[in-house]
Write a structure and sequence with these properties.
Layout: E1 2-6, H1 10-21, H2 26-38, E2 60-66, E3 72-78, H3 84-94, E4 99-101, H4 102-111, H5 122-135, H6 138-142, E5 167-172, E6 178-184, E7 205-208, E8 212-218, H7 220-226, H8 228-237, H9 242-254, E9 260-261, E10 264-270, E11 275-279, E12 285-290, E13 297-300, E14 302-303, E15 309-310
Parallel strand pairs: 3-4, 11-14
Antiparallel strand pairs: 1-5, 1-12, 2-3, 2-6, 5-6, 7-8, 8-10, 9-15, 10-11, 12-13
Helix pairs in contact: 1-2, 2-3, 8-9
The structure holds aspartic acid (ASP).
The site of aspartic acid has 12 residues, from β8.
Length: about 325
């Protein structure tokens, strides 16, 4: 039995292992672990306490995928519900659909009996307000929601040095089944309705028992364009080792063109339980925990630098 998570999975990885040790499925473990990250108010990139969009609304993205049959559930731009991973799992279980967004996702969450909660915490609101006060002219700020050209101000979100983050959980249970889950509040100060890679099967996550599983954090727009999580698993399907598969997926990201290229990271396991983490940063780590270990351990990610470029001055166009 195995769990691997992004660094911020620390608050949930032990509970997830308890689920596996208690005979729970990989899907149960992934959901249980991610719920604890979503509930952590100090994590401003996931769930309750996440940083809001440009208008100060917290919009959450999450998805879960079962490697035994490739069933998946996802929600995007979900407002007012603190456990998007559980709503995503209900989409998988109850609907013939895979992915609900916005109002439809919120309606479904209500129908499934999930409790509503105001997700914008005071520290997150203060940081949002401070950022906007620093970067926006006072007259724009006073009527932000009514701006006919809100798109011009998304530049404060698209600075790659600014806050973002996501949680990744991959589990392999006693039966050898793989599951993967991803949850995020996306890019801080994003344009309303923006959905990143995290809830997109093939981009932010992928699991197939026959080959392995992968999950991403970082610049979601890049993982969407390169279908990164699926690529890692697909390269394993084509016979590459897990490390070679990761290197090929990073090379694909490095081949992307366009005006907005920044950092990317992923974690992956193969069907034999070998695991790796990749990052375009030098100092990145991930967590792993097997049933033979007393506590989770941290492992360095293999660093593959990616070409970066980030166009500024949207408002000058
Ligand atoms: N991948 C996430 C997104 O694009 C953000 C992140 O992981 O930093 O929404």
């Amino acid at each position: 039995m195995l769990l691997i998570t992004s660094q911020n999975g620390k608050v949930g990885i032990e509970a997830a292992m308890q689920v596996l040790k208690g005979g729970g499925s990989a899907m149960d473990a992934v959901e249980a672990g991610i719920r604890l990250v979503e509930a952590n108010p100090d994590d401003h990139s996931v769930g309750y306490g996440g940083y809001p969009n440009l208008l100060g609304e917290v919009e959450l993205d999450a998805a879960i995928m079962d490697g035994s049959d490739l069933t998946s559930g996802a929600v995007g731009a979900l407002k007012g519900y603190p456990y998007p991973i559980s709503v995503a799992r209900k989409v998988l279980e109850k609907l013939p659909h895979v992915f609900l967004v916005g109002e439809g996702a919120a309606r479904f969450a209500a129908e499934m009996g999930f409790e509503r909660r105001d997700l914008l915490t005071e520290p997150a609101r203060e940081t949002w307000e401070k950022r906007l006060r620093e970067d926006l002219p006072p007259d724009v700020l006073a009527h932000l929601a009514e701006q006919p050209d809100l798109w011009r101000y998304v530049e404060i979100a698209t600075d790659p040095e600014r806050a973002k983050g996501t949680t990744n959980f991959i589990a392999q249970d006693a039966r050898g089944n793989l599951a993967v889950g991803v949850s995020t509040s996306g890019w801080a100060w994003k344009y309303p309705g923006r959905i990143g890679d995290s809830p997109i099967v093939g981009a932010g996550l992928y699991a197939d028992n026959r080959y392995g599983a992968a999950a991403c954090t970082g610049t979601g727009e890049m993982a969407i364009r390169a279908a990164t999580a699926h690529s890692v698993v697909f390269y394993m399907k084509m016979g590459l080792s897990i490390t070679e598969a990761g290197q090929r997926a990073m090379a694909d990201l490095n081949d992307l063109g366009g005006r907005y290229l920044s950092g990317m990271n992923f974690i992956a396991v193969d069907r034999a339980g070998n695991h790796v983490g990749f990052s375009s940063r030098t100092d990145a780590t991930y967590l792993y925990f097997t049933d033979a270990m007393d506590a989770p351990a941290e492992a360095p990610r293999l660093c593959v630098p990616l070409r970066e470029c980030w166009e500024k001055n949207l408002s000058a166009d």
